[in-house]
Write a structure and sequence with these properties.
Largest sheet: 6 strands, antiparallel
CATH topology of the largest domain: Beta-Lactamase
Structural class: alpha+beta
Helix content: 40-55%
Number of domains: 4
Strand order of the largest sheet: 3-2-1-6-5-4
Shape: elongated
CATH class of the largest domain: Alpha Beta
Oligomer: single chain
Strand content: 15-25%
């Protein structure tokens, strides 16, 4: 009968191994003891413990003894899929015995081909606990070994004891690391919370935590507002020289979403772990530029995780280890993801705080501008009121000389026009902000529009003795636009040039075609614009300090109106100035259209015709306004009747026919809309021209007028020339 008793030395060795392992707590010491005790018990020439990575994809050496340095280093870390005795033992969870070099060459040709074999026999025993393999225990022998059953059984017992001890040590180590990392995460949260509430401080605090507890280098990239690009915003490294090189690499680097390693992390919102960075793997994941530079720095291991908060990906964090240190593990990746989540939340909070701070600053600026605007509005309204008051006093004098009366009439016309412009500009800005302005687009010659604008501004230019230079091509410069609004925009620029240029200056108006664009340029030799004012010259109520001191300073809405009207036409505005006292230049650019869509071009000459005599009813509760209209129309050979409330208007219209009806909408009693409805409801032999005359100028007010039956909607104060033109469209008596 075969003697199955172990030698006493083996039994003693097992007892000593059990005692040693029970007193060791860390995995590294466990691995060392397992190798030393097993090697001594089996008289092996070399021994090694291979440990399986937490993710189960990689095998690395826990401890080795007796192997030449140049033979063991290539196997410090390798994939589980490698064709080796140790990986066979781990995959199959069975002991692998190789008794000769010939057998090694036959079973593992790749291993034998890659190096000269120095041992004659090998044994690899799986380290398994409750069916779960955590690694392998390997021994090598210079002399050939028979590996008798008794020796193999002893080797398996040694492996079982080591496996249990290693698993216990790993659990203890994981618990220790988990506790330590919880403390680190708590400290990171505290530091992120303590950082000033701005994004830059949060990023610096995050990078410091990554360097202290995760990797040797850290790069944080933030996504562009549209999420299409990543831009590296902070780079940190424990090595100053390496940090300098990394900064040079990332300084101008922008990564498109979905491209390169971090771009793919941004697109997929999934982390990437490269425990062992190989040139081929990095080249397949990163951009070629990054792959080449990172490889040159000797990167060992790399992780990249998304910065996610409230369902949004704000950017990425990439960290690396260099040289021959420990590679990143799945635990490291989980830890970095936890830190990234806290950092993303802190970034989001910092952005919200910055947005609130900026909104508060904008509100303060807007409030200050509102106060300045109200002060300027009072000034601008008082300016025309003073001559109006004086003119009315002159006209009340009996008798008044003809020269004084002529001045009074002209002064009233000028100042009422100024008041109308102020009110119209304010209303237009409000309408644009509310999206209430609709453009009447048609093919236009921009040169003809510019000439019309110049004619509208010529009185002011002439009053200040400015030289006006006009440059326009001989052929039409065609755009699709609203003639009234484009004239208004160009005229605003010309008026500004006239007001802010000292007397006898020069104003230049130029129209040109440049590529696919139609260009209008208005330049002057005036007060210029300071550098700090250039960036906000189109802001609502914005005015330079010099402009506020001028009598024709305006309300600071004209340039805002210009910019928005041009943008509504699909164009843009640019402004430039060499500085204060050196003039300024405004450029309006519009999309140019093809000549095939052009209208017929030609000069339109305006002739004033004396209107045919018609019967006109005026209904307005403002007695002065009604009487003013009456005198104007009677001076144009019209037969006029006036009433001051809606009921009187209805009674008058029910007993007499009128060719023209001018109704205020806000009449006492029956309002103007109801009067209009009743007029239209009556079947008349001729349809009278019915015009709403009101202070209500919103688009919805106009729509209500048209729905009630009005033909036109005029906003007070009424332009006399426009009203006279409307009379020509009324039915003949």
């Amino acid at each position: 009968m075969e003697d199955t008793r172990w030698p006493v030395a083996w039994t003693n060795r097992l007892q000593r191994l059990a005692a040693v392992l029970s007193g060791v707590a860390d995995p590294a010491s466990m691995a060392r003891e397992a190798v030393e005790q097993g090697q001594a018990a089996l008289a092996a020439d070399a021994g090694v413990v291979f440990l399986l990575s937490p993710d189960g994809g990689t095998v690395e050496i826990g401890h080795d003894s007796g192997y030449p340095e140049d033979r063991i280093r290539p196997w410090e870390r390798f994939p589980l899929s490698a064709d080796l005795p140790a990986t066979d033992a781990i995959r199959s969870r069975e002991t692998v015995l190789v008794r000769s070099r010939d057998e090694m060459r036959r079973r593992y040709p790749d291993l034998a081909k890659g190096a000269t074999l120095i041992h004659d026999s090998w044994a690899a025993v799986p380290l398994a606990v409750e069916g779960v393999c955590i690694g392998a225990l390997g021994f090598s022998f210079y002399a050939a070994q028979a590996f008798e059953a008794q020796a193999v059984a002893f080797l398996q017992v040694v492996a079982d004891q080591c496996a249990q001890a290693l698993q216990r040590a790993q659990l203890v180590e994981r618990e220790r690391r988990s506790t330590a990392r919880l403390r680190v995460l708590a400290e990171a949260s505290r530091m992120l919370a303590a950082a000033r509430l701005d994004v830059d401080s949060v990023l610096k605090a995050m990078a410091a935590q990554v360097l202290a507890h995760v990797g040797q280098a850290c790069a944080i990239s933030l996504a562009s507002p549209d999420g299409d690009w990543l831009e590296i915003v902070i780079v940190r490294d424990q090595d100053p020289e390496r940090e300098r090189l990394l900064r040079q690499m990332g300084g101008t680097l922008r990564i498109r979403r979905g491209e390169g390693l971090s771009g793919k992390v941004l697109a997929t919102e999934s982390s990437v772990l490269l425990p062992s960075v190989t040139p081929n793997e990095l080249a397949s994941r990163a951009t070629s530029l990054v792959a080449a530079r990172v490889e040159a720095l000797g990167v060992l291991s790399l992780m990249c995780v998304p910065l996610q908060s409230r369902g949004r990906t704000l950017g990425t964090i990439t960290t690396t280890r260099f040289g021959e240190g420990q590679p990143f593990t799945a635990d490291d990746l989980s830890f970095l993801e936890d830190m990234a989540g806290r950092a993303a939340l802190a970034i989001e909070n910092a952005r919200l705080h910055e947005a609130e701070r900026e909104a508060r600053a904008r509100a303060e600026v807007a409030d200050r501008r509102k106060d300045e605007f109200l002060a300027m509005l009072g000034h601008e309204l008082r300016n025309p009121l003073a001559p109006l008051l004086m003119a009315s006093e002159i006209l009340r004098q009996v008798p008044a000389d003809e020269k004084s009366q002529a001045w009074a009439r002209d002064a009233i016309a000028r100042q009422v026009a100024q008041l109308s412009r102020l009110v119209d500009d304010l209303l237009d800005v409000s309408r644009i902000n509310l999206g209430k302005i609709e453009l009447r687009l048609e093919p236009l010659d921009l040169g003809a529009v510019a000439v019309q604008a110049l004619e509208a501004s010529r009185p002011l230019l002439a009053e200040r003795d400015h030289q006006v230079v006009v440059e326009a091509p001989a052929v039409p410069v065609l755009v699709r636009g609203d003639a009234v609004r484009l004239t208004q925009a160009i005229s605003n620029l010309l008026n500004n040039a006239a007001k802010y240029t000292d007397r006898a200056g020069q104003v230049r108006l130029r129209v040109a075609s440049v590529g696919e664009q139609a260009i209008v340029t208005v330049s002057d030799t005036g007060i210029g614009i300071s550098a700090d004012m250039l960036g906000r010259v189109f802001d609502l109520f914005a005015q330079g300090q010099d402009a506020r001191g001028r009598s024709k300073g305006g309300l600071g809405v004209g340039l805002t109106l210009v910019k928005r009207l041009v943008e509504m036409h699909g164009g843009y505005v640019q402004v430039s100035s060499p500085g204060e006292g050196h003039g300024s230049e405004f450029v309006l650019a519009f999309p140019r259209i093809d000549a095939a869509t052009a209208p017929e071009h030609g000069r339109i000459s305006a002739t004033t015709l004396r209107a045919a005599r018609r019967r006109v009813l005026i209904a307005d509760d403002n007695v002065d306004a009604a009487q003013g209209l009456r005198h104007f129309l009677e001076s144009r050979n019209q037969e006029v009747e006036v009433v001051h409330d809606g009921d009187a208007a209805e009674r008058t219209l029910s007993h007499a026919d009128f060719e023209v009806i001018l109704l205020d909408i806000s009449l006492p009693g029956m309002d103007g809309l109801e009067v209009a409805r009743r007029v239209r409801a009556r079947a008349a032999a001729r349809r009278p021209l019915m015009v709403a005359i009101t202070g209500l100028g919103r688009d919805e007010d106009r729509q209500r007028s048209i729905a009630a039956g009005f033909d036109h909607h005029l906003v007070k104060p009424i332009d006399p020339a426009g009203l006279a033109a409307l009379l020509e469209t009324a039915p003949s008596p």
